[in-house]
Amino acid sequence: MNVENKTIIISGASRGIGRATAMLLAQHGANVIVTARNADDLNELATEAIQGSVRGKIVAVSGDVANEDDMNAVVKMAKDQFNRIDVVINNAGYGVFKPVEEISVEEWDKLMATNVKGTFLLTKAALPILKAQGSGHIVVVASDVAKRTFAGGSLYTASKYAQEAFMGALRKEVRPFGIKVTGVYSGLVDSYFHEKGHGHETSKHYLQVGDMAESMLFLVSRPAHVVIDEFMIHPLEQEY
């Protein structure tokens, strides 16, 4: 589980899976650049890391994953501060669950901008550095609904299928440069993602954000010659 001195970028890191992952990786000695739109939450995370005397560092850079300039700035900060980038974790995302005729054009555009365009922009910004290094690891936190559909999930599942296709093509492009691509396909997680919020009684047997963070640590700490292309994880109570 060695991530000592690795430089890791995490989007959507202000809470939930992203926040838990950032803290765990920093505790194991990684230098983590966290980004999200909520600057206050990011700064609170960075302060918590300092007060907890973690082995690594957490650097907060607020920004919108759907904004190209913001993502370029995040990558530049990582490069300027630590002189390299080892891992990019595309974690930012959210869901809208409605029958098709009730989804507005604005809802469609905003969700696709975050879930799909955001993955593209952060990855694109980091790729020249990873290619020049001849190494790197791109992780996309998708969902098990990148593999299945359900009623009321047309918009969300479309975004996750798009991430799946993006990863598939990207994987073929970058492997010759020594760059790994991993898709993470999780089932139900007790996080802020769900309408009832984190910690609700109905979610007590879901995966916890700590479970997801430990999974991320495992994935990004494999030896250089090992890549886990796809990682599917569910709570035992969820039928698959």
Structural features, described:
The chain is of the alpha/beta class and 240 residues long. The chain has one domain (7-233): 3-Layer(aba) Sandwich (Rossmann fold), CATH 3.40.50.720. It is built from 6 helices and 9 strands; from the N terminus they run βαβαβαβαβαβββαβ. The protein has helices at residues 16-27, 39-51, 68-82, 105-133, 154-174, 209-220, and strands at residues 7-11, 31-35, 57-60, 87-90, 136-141, 179-186, 189-190, 207-208, 230-233. The strands form 2 sheets. A 7-stranded parallel beta sheet has the order 3-2-1-4-5-6-9, sandwiched between helices. A two-stranded parallel ribbon has the order 7-8. β2 (31-35), α2 and β3 form a beta-alpha-beta unit. α1 (16-27) crosses α6 and α4 (105-133) packs parallel to α5 (154-174). The longest helix is centred in the middle third of the chain and has 29 residues, at 105-133. It starts with 6 loop residues before the first strand and ends in a 7-residue tail after the last strand. This is SDR family oxidoreductase. Keywords: Oxidoreductase. Pfam families: adh_short. One of its GO terms (molecular function) is oxidoreductase activity, acting on the CH-OH group of donors, NAD or NADP as acceptor. Belongs to the short-chain dehydrogenases/reductases (SDR) family.
